[in-house]
Design brief:
- This protein has 349 residues and is an alpha/beta fold.
- It has 2 domains: 11-207, 3-Layer(aba) Sandwich (Rossmann fold), CATH 3.40.50; 216-344, Nitrogenase molybdenum iron protein domain (Rossmann fold, 3-Layer(aba) Sandwich).
- The chain contains 12 helices and 14 strands.
- The strands form 4 sheets. It has a 5-stranded parallel beta sheet.
- Helix 6 (174-189) runs antiparallel to helix 7 (192-210).
- The two termini are 33 Å apart.
Length: 349
């Protein structure tokens, strides 16, 4: 989910702040590399920007939880100068490694905080983190010799080492783009074998979930409810990864006609779509009103139009951790939850 919380930091301050930032080479000491690291040139294209490295980054800064957990999954905690913008508790399997990484900010990082970490690499799941009122634009940071990486899922029309373009006559799916992130980061940090294993394991989960589609009755429609701010619901649109998850398991996102990630809609619009079931994102640990699954259920049942839907009256709800609705190393975990929930609701033979 992308919401603006402007840092209001001037570009002059950013340029001054980042004078110490550089793109450093690594001799491999303390490296999580698959093999003994040595100086080698690596070229990767991320969201339309070409990046070159003489060696693996030594002081990476992650601008969100998704990026943080991908690096931890690849065993790169010793290569991290800091993390930020945690939406929920870190996954239990990463807790030990995460405790070794400095938390630069629990919220969205500012340019001053990025500078203080003296990074040689910055990565984020969304292009929105790289703006003038946050850490600075990618162009500005490139001028200061700080390479930046954005998930290919957020820029599918750009060339991310070939991602986003048609391959063998087939456009890559959001999951293909996510796996491209793993492979690109594996190359950047010299952990190609770990990245390849991660891709293999997650593809196996994806394949298993896809087999469910053959046992689904019809094509049930689903609304993915991510957040409720005030009385405004945010739902998954066509370009959000839940749409791909729906297709994978033989369901249809009820808001697939909206070409956005997480558009705001009204309760009346949801009621008009009359979904067969509703997936509710639980962001309890973020702590804002409307974040928890309980808050969302309360809002749904309190609305006179929504309360009359068959999906609501028959309690056709599936609860999934909200962070699994964003493109990340944890996204595939939503698939077995989704298929199990659909089976419980009677949609899977």
């Amino acid at each position: 989910m992308r919401h603006r919380h402007p840092a209001r930091v001037g570009i002059a301050a950013l340029a001054l702040a980042l004078t110490a930032v550089g793109c450093s080479s690594s001799d491999g000491s303390g490296s999580a590399s698959d093999d003994k690291a040595s100086a080698r040139e690596t070229n990767v294209t991320s969201c339309g920007r070409k990046l070159s490295f003489d060696g693996p980054p030594e002081r990476a800064v992650a601008l969100d939880q998704s990026s943080t957990e991908v690096l931890l999954e690849l065993g790169l905690q010793d290569r991290m100068a800091g993390t930020s913008n945690l939406k929920t508790k870190i996954a239990p399997e990463y807790k030990s490694a995460y405790d070794k990484v400095k938390v630069l900010s629990p919220k969205i990082l500012t340019s001053e905080q990025l500078r203080a970490a003296t990074p040689d690499f910055a990565l984020g799941g969304f292009t929105d983190y790289f703006t003038k009122d946050r850490v600075g634009t990618r162009e500005e940071l490139a001028d200061l010799d700080l390479p930046t990486f954005v998930s290919a899922v957020d820029c599918p029309k750009q060339n991310a080492s070939g991602a986003g373009k048609k391959a063998a006559g087939k456009t890559k799916s959001p999951f293909d783009l996510l796996f491209q992130d793993y492979e690109d980061l594996g190359r950047i940090f010299g952990v190609e074998k770990r990245a390849a294993k991660l891709v293999k394991d997650q593809r196996a989960t994806l394949t298993k979930a896809a087999k469910t589609a053959d046992r689904v009755k019809g094509e049930p429609s689903v609304v993915w409810l991510y957040s409720v701010y005030g009385d405004t619901p945010y739902v998954a649109g066509r370009s959000a990864i839940p749409s791909e998850m729906s297709r994978t398991v033989g369901a249809k996102n009820a808001f697939d006609d909206l070409d956005e990630d997480w558009p705001t809609v009204t309760w009346e619009q949801i009621a008009e779509r009359d979904p067969d079931f509703i997936v509710i994102g639980d962001l309890s640990e973020r702590g804002k009103p409307g974040d928890s699954a309980a808050d969302k259920l309360k809002a749904i049942r309190a609305n006179p139009v929504m309360s009359k839907l068959a999906a609501v009256e028959k309690k056709r709800f599936i609860t999934i951790p909200g962070t699994e609705m964003d493109p990340s190393v944890r996204t595939v975990s939503a698939l077995p939850r989704l298929t199990a929930g659909m089976k419980d609701l009677g949609y899977v033979r």
